[in-house]
Amino acid sequence: MPVATLLPFTATPNRKSASPTSFRLTEKFILLLVFSAFITLCFGAIFFLPDSSKLLSGVFFHSSAVETNTRTGPDSSDSGSAGNDERVLAKIRKDHEKALLEAKDTLQKRPDEIKQDINTDKEKVAKESMGQGGKDVNNLPFVEYHRPPGATGHEPLDPETRERRTRIKEMMKHAWDSYRRYAWGSNELRPVSKQGHSSNLFGDIKGATIVDALDTLYIMEMFEEFDAATDWVEKNLDFNVNAEVSVFEVNIRFVGGLLSAYYLSGKEVFRRKAVELGEKLLPAFKTPTGIPWALLNLKSGIGRNWPWASGGSSILAEYGTLHLEFMHLSKLSGNPEFAQKVMNIRKVLNRLDKPQGLYPNYLNPNSGQWGQHHVSVGGLGDSFYEYLLKAWLMSDRTDEEGKKMYYDALQAIETNLMRKSSGGLTYIAEWKGGLLEHKMGHLTCFAGGMIALGADGAPSDKTGHQMEQAAEIARTCHESYARTALKLGPEAFRFDGGVEAIATRQNEKYFILRPEVIETYMYMWRFTHDPKYREWGWEAVQALEQHCRVEGGYSGVRDVYASTPNHDDVQQSFYLAETLKYLYLLFSDDDHLPFDHWVFNTEAHPLPVIKKDKTDRPNEVE
């Protein structure tokens, strides 16, 4: 066969173009094949490229199921493909509806809540990325957060009260701004020399003022400052230190401050940090009796007691002031060990004989026996009694053991330590081996507020009597202020040698911005609404402003009887945590941190009552 026949499109040089009608049968067949291939390619593109109409119907919900079946319906050669298409469309619709709902919900949230959600999602991803290897302190159980009532208040109606409350908030701003400017990240501030200051109580942990002040900032609605503090905690608060810390001080300031910040704000970072630190404190309980050491190296877990404390004893106010925080740590972590540790302390104490019903300040953690028989409701003993009462209140009045221990101890204190001076001032002396030392510390002045707080739970025939005792102690502590040149109270004052409510020793004349007297004023105001307590509180404000305020913050003074102040150049973290908070609440309405929903730890960090009735949702913590 000629080549031209095999290759019809191959022309010889002399060949002319021919019309289609002149094509031979073979040429027509080849053209038909080419045309068929072209048509097949076009239709293939339609069937196999992404179907935009399906995508649009999934997003905008315009295409109905009938339309879908028309395209892929029963006449289709692949009914399985039709089912897959329907499932894909259904999933697209469902995902889009969910996205719309989430967007609508997000738009209704405050910016800080949106930020918190983002951080929570980031934490979740971080946890998932860790896999199953190793112990993850961040892997906490889910806790449904409900903010208890009264986290923030409202402006008092009385103009004078409102003005005074605003002034106290300005004092907080001056103290905080000064710390932030001159000592940010340090534990405390030196306001005269304008630099950071650190006590060895915290080892190498930093930021005591930041953590201590968190709840005060929130309560005063200083939210910009609170957010800055939160950011520092999230990025810089580190407990992985090879250093010795005071278990007591770290617990009441750091653990207490973090717990309170969590309950007020709901921010998960505070719960996580509180539990992390709590776990690092647990090795302190590794003693033969379970009575914890006073000092603990957070890295090695090795503990010891203060060398000056009665033959290596643990101190009542230190091991007895863990209960509130550790009960909440168990609640928030799901780890019962925290609660078990502090309940064991009670077991040890209940096995021991108490001299005259009193609890000595020293207990040996190895032998489980008392050290020196020195009893004080001030330093070394004070907050143990406070935590017995508050453990009962925080349990929604179900902790009958704590209640009994408190009222029995209070009766022993009244019988053995409480006295009245010749001038009619009621005071609480110290007991040393059966002999009374007629001195009362500034720290002891918290007892007026404690007795008032517990009076309602006392037997009915003692409630009025205890309120009278509380009022008399408040008056005595006010006198300790009124009888100084600076109108600020000394560290301790005496009732002997012809003096009453006056410090006679030089090492007792200093004032370090302590809160206990103002704390009692706040409680007495709440329970009596006697205006004198607000007036006494305002006297303290004026004295603080006149004698303790400096350009770089607030400083303690070395001698409250001197005509001009000699500053000690330390702005204590508890000044922001306690003194200013109690002053602010003294001039706030009673529904701001109400006592039936909140209990204050000994550093004035509010912790919610753990309600026995779980239907009372505002007080649930899980």
Automatic annotation (TrEMBL):
Protein family: Belongs to the glycosyl hydrolase 47 family.
Subcellular location field: Endomembrane system
Listed name of the protein: alpha-1,2-Mannosidase
Gene Ontology biological process terms from the UniProt entry: carbohydrate metabolic process
Gene3D superfamilies: 1.50.10.10
EC number: 3.2.1.-
Pathway(s) served: Protein modification; protein glycosylation
Keywords tagged on the record: Calcium, Disulfide bond, Glycosidase, Hydrolase, Membrane, Metal-binding, Signal-anchor, Transmembrane, Transmembrane helix
Topology of this chain in the membrane: Single-pass type II membrane protein
